[in-house]
Write a structure and sequence with these properties.
Elements: H1 2-25, E1 38-41, E2 51-54, E3 58-62, E4 68-81, E5 84-92, E6 98-106, E7 112-115, E8 118-125
Antiparallel strand pairs: 1-2, 1-8, 2-3, 3-4, 4-5, 5-6, 6-7, 7-8
Length: 130
């Protein structure tokens, strides 16, 4: 009886070590600054039905209030490029495919986001509803 208990204990400890090792390899989610948290939308022709959301640890894109693809934010880099603040948000999907989104943020008027590679698109934060 003691021998079976020892074998079970070794297996349990081994499983715990493997789980710990796997969780240690997973990237620690980064946190988005609070002023970026919210739902962002644009009125630009061809994009008016789309939105982007950012919360503390996720970013997502969608075409309705109920449907959006969400991704885990793995890193948020903030730097200055001229007189603008540049953010590069690194994120990944459930299969751990990696993506990046680079955008300029301006705080005026409740905040504006302009994608670095699409300066014709201006995203504004949706006003909070009560």
């Amino acid at each position: 009886m003691v021998k079976r208990y020892a074998v079970w204990s070794i297996r349990a400890v081994g499983c715990l070590v493997v789980l710990w090792f796997c969780s240690a390899c997973a990237p620690e989610p980064d946190h988005a600054p609070s002023y970026l948290v919210g739902v962002w939308e644009t009125r630009t022709d061809g994009y008016a039905d789309q939105h982007m959301f950012i919360d503390q640890t996720r970013i997502g894109f969608g075409t309705s209030a109920l449907a959006a693809d969400g991704y885990v934010i793995t890193k948020v880099d903030e730097s200055r490029e001229g007189d603008k603040t540049l953010f590069v948000v690194s994120y990944q999907d459930a299969e751990q495919a990696k993506f990046q989104l680079a955008f300029f943020y301006e705080p005026a008027g409740g905040g504006r986001i302009t994608f670095k590679n699409q300066d014709h698109l201006i995203w504004t934060k949706r006003a909070a509803t009560t």
